[in-house]
Amino acid sequence: MVKGVVTQSTEGARIAIDLDAGCRLASLEVHGHELLVTSGPGPIDWGCYPMAPYAGRVNEGRFAFGGASYQLPRTLGGHATHGTVFRHRWEAESDSSFKTELGAEWPFSGWVRQEIRLFPSGIAFRMEVHSEDGAMPASCGWHPWFRRIVGGAEAELDFRPGFMFERDLTGIATRDRRPVSAGPWDDCFGDLDRPPALTWPGVLRLEMEATCDYWVVFTERDHALCIEPQTAPPDALNHDAFVVEPGKPLIAECTMTWHLPEQPAP
């Protein structure tokens, strides 16, 4: 069984996948430039990690399903957040396929498989959330921390959603939609009219596409910003979670592609 860090390389790019740190991208280097925050004060603050079996916050860590009530560990501001698997050690099935159990912090038995494949101009991600026994609620997504400054250039966010969700006084996304307001943001959005992108002028442009309908964008830090595709808004366990059953996993896919600036003609 492979443990530790798995690397993939192609012409002009290299990724490092840290299995002991939740199967996250610990590094994403493109043409000599590191695009991710590679360390932080806690496990939610760096790299690009999978969120499952729930993405974002769960209000006070509480939810009900199948006539029973459940309490999850509270990890951020009195809420449960970002799932369980980013805190677990993962096993490598190959150099691009990885698996972990949902763990004791989750009240249902199951596992997650993540595939990460580097190609010359980008990365393809795929996540599957599986149930071991019976039905369970779930959502999932990815949480990348991009550096604001790369190659001396400051990131410019191209993000054009149709709406954002109102947040309550504790920061939890409600299901009330409202027009998009100016940032800074720690909010969930929908109805994008184009894939979100980050441009570091003169360095490169990175675009993200996903099968997910919702995106959380976090711009409240000076050194980084986050663009997070999610299958459902935060607090989905209390509203609109997908019901996973044996043989019926929740599946999400995401790609990041990059483009170098055009070189001036000689």
Any overview of this molecule?
With 266 residues, this protein is an all-beta fold. It has a single domain (5-259), classed as Beta-galactosidase, Chain A, domain 5 (Distorted Sandwich), CATH 2.70.98.10. 0% of the residues lie in helices and 50% in strands. It contains no helices and 27 strands. The protein has strands at 5-10, 13-18, 24-30, 33-34, 48-51, 57-58, 62-65, 68-71, 80-81, 91-92, 97-101, 110-119, 122-131, 136-138, 141-147, 149-150, 153-154, 156-158, 163-167, 173-178, 186-190, 197-200, 204-210, 214-218, 224-230, 242-244, 250-259. Strands 10-11-12-13-27-23-22-18 form an 8-stranded antiparallel sheet, with no helix packed on it. The protein has a 7-stranded antiparallel sheet with strand order 5-15-25-24-21-19-20, with no helix packed on it. Strands 1-2-3-4 form a 4-stranded antiparallel sheet, with no helix packed on it. It is globular. The chain starts with a strand and ends in a 7-residue tail after the last strand.
Average pLDDT over all residues: 95
**Number of H/I helices:** 0
Spatial sequence of strands, sheet with the most strands = 10-11-12-13-27-23-22-18
What's the CATH topology name? Beta-galactosidase, Chain A, domain 5
Q: How many independent structural domains?
A: 1
- Shape estimate: globular
Looking at how many chains there are and whether they match, the oligomeric state comes to single chain
End-to-end separation in angstroms reads: 52 Å
Order of helix and strand elements from N to C terminus:
EEEEEEEEEEEEEEEEEEEEEEEEEEE
Uncertain stretches: none
Structural class, by secondary structure, is mainly beta
CATH class: Mainly Beta
- Characterize the main sheet: 8 strands, antiparallel
The beta-strand count equals 27
What share of the residues lie within helices? under 10%
CATH architecture: Distorted Sandwich
Rg over CA atoms: 18 Å
Strand residue content: over 45%
